[in-house]
Specification:
6 helices, alpha/beta, single chain
């Protein structure tokens, strides 16, 4: 098994794929948090706060786990050897699709997904993606902001897209790296940020923490 360089506080296969793309070995320890936006909170602040909280929550829980016979309940069961990961920094991330001042989360059902796609159709929306790195020296974070232009979508193709199963667990109801790529007319910003982990910002934070990229290629 590869020696990890970072702990990924996310169960997202897309974020794991992106870390692998830049050659950073990792172990997954998902964070479980209330991801609701606070009243009056700006969207940019919300995604940065959530990324920071995810990273810090996993770091704190793993630190506590060293002194307990069993891991805390909000951390998935881990092998005892997991405590050896504690010197490693913890990477957290959060992504939101924003149109106007509304943050579009994952669609609850078919009607919600079709409503989201209808709102995005023919318009520019913003994708905010924050990344945070927590370690014994504190938490540092960065924010990526991308603008995505959708072409006009028809009702039947939105319904067919829902039937594909892809929109079900995606913020905004689409995946730029999947079938939803055909909806994107233009992108100004970070492709990896729209996927869920802005790699430029991630690499900067890792470098500041002494974690090299391209380790495992």
């Amino acid at each position: 098994m590869r020696a990890p360089a970072v702990i990924l506080a996310s169960a997202s296969p897309r974020r794991a794929q992106l870390l692998e793309q830049i050659g950073v070995p990792y172990r997954v320890v998902p964070a479980e948090l209330d991801e609701q936006r606070l009243p009056g909170e700006m969207a940019e602040r919300c995604v940065r706060r959530l990324a920071e909280r995810k990273a810090q929550a996993v770091l704190t829980a793993l630190q506590a786990a060293r002194a307990l016979p069993q891991p805390p309940p909000r951390v998935l069961p881990l092998p005892q050897s997991q405590s050896a990961l504690l010197p490693l920094p913890v990477l957290g991330a959060d992504t939101a699709v924003v149109i106007g001042d509304e943050m579009l989360g994952k669609p609850a059902d078919r009607d919600a997904a079709l409503g989201m796609l209808s709102r995005l159709s023919g318009r520019v929306h913003v994708v905010l993606s924050a990344v945070a790195l927590a370690s014994g020296s504190g938490v540092r974070s960065a924010l990526s902001r991308s603008e995505v232009q959708f072409r006009h979508l028809t009702g039947p193709e939105c319904a067919a897209y829902w039937d594909s199963g892809e929109p079900r667990d995606k913020a905004g109801g689409y995946a730029i790296q999947g079938l939803g790529a055909v909806f994107v007319e233009r992108l100004h910003g970070s492709y990896s940020g729209v996927m869920g982990l802005p790699l430029f910002e991630t690499a900067v934070l890792l470098a500041e923490a002494g974690v090299p990229v391209w380790r495992e290629l």
